Structure formats: C-alpha cells, structure tokens
Amino acid sequence: MKVLVIDDEKLVRWFLERALRKWNHNVTSASDGNKAIDLLKSNSYDIVFTDLKMPAADGSSVIEYLNGMANTPSIIVCSAYITPEMEDDFRNRGLLALKKPFKLEELEDIMKKITTLNI
Questions:
Q1: What's the domain range around 72?
Q2: Rounded to 5 degrees, what are φ and ψ at 36?
Q3: pLDDT in single tens digits along all 119 residues of the chain
Q4: Full-model pTM
Q5: Helix 10-22 to helix 104-117 angle, to the nearest 10 degrees?
C-alpha cells in the first residue's frame, strides 16, 4: 500500500517509515501540512498518518483537504494530544487515532484494522 506519513517530529517519521517499509508498504513522508498537501495534489495514497499540531498547515488542514478528495484514503491521526472525546469524534468521522507515544504493536494493530476492514 502507498502510505503518506506527515509529522514535524523527525524521529516519529523515521519510526513510522521504518516499520511500514518493513511490512512492505511504499512510504513517503512530509514534515508539515503544506508539504503534504503538495504531495497529495500529485500522488494518491491508500493510507495517511498525520500529526495534529505542526508548523505551517496543521493536521486539521490536511484532513479537510483529504475529505475533499474523490477517493479519500484511510486517515490515522497521530498525536500526543488526543483526548477520549477527540477519539470518539474521529471515530464518528471515519478516522482512526494513534496516541503518541505508541508502541510498534499498536501500529501493527491499526494497520491490520485498515487492511482487514478496508477502512
């Protein structure tokens, strides 16, 4: 699957890229929402991981852009600032949440959800 990872934290991008490539996914990354939107204009992705709080355009801007696309990819919001209320809101909107810091097993579980349920 083609995956886009959007996070301003270099270590988080590295961790996600490494794990996803190990599982044979084609991974591209961006350090902020503006760079991600530029990539989304010329590429299609099956899955998008996005942080919420980033410089330039934040994760909410990216999600809004993605929701306007004809074929919306699966969206996973990765943030340390996810509250239970936010998680419910994301779920109601068809988004998945991964609270930082997360473990490899949690990432694996969320990827299994996406691939088996085709979220």
A1: 2-117
A2: -65, -45
A3: 999 999 999 999 999 999 999 999 999 999 999 999 999 999 999 999 999 998 888 888 999 999 888 888 999 999 998 999 999 999 999 899 999 999 999 999 999 988 886 65
A4: 0.91
A5: 60
Query: Which CATH number characterizes residue 92's domain?
Result: 3.40.50.2300
Total domains, the chain? 1
CA atoms within 13 A on the CB side of 74: 18
Tell the residue number behind the tokens 């809101």, with chain if given. 89
Q: What is the pLDDT of residue 118?
A: 62
Least Cα distance to 46 among 24, 21, 74 occurs for 74
For residue 32 the two structure tokens come to 């902020």
Q: What is the 3-state secondary structure (H, E, C) of the chain?
A: CEEEEECCCHHHHHHHHHHHHHCCCEEEEECCHHHHHHHHHHCCCCEEEEECCCCCCCHHHHHHHHHCCCCCCEEEEEECCCCHHHHHHHHHCCCEEEECCCCHHHHHHHHHHHHHHCC
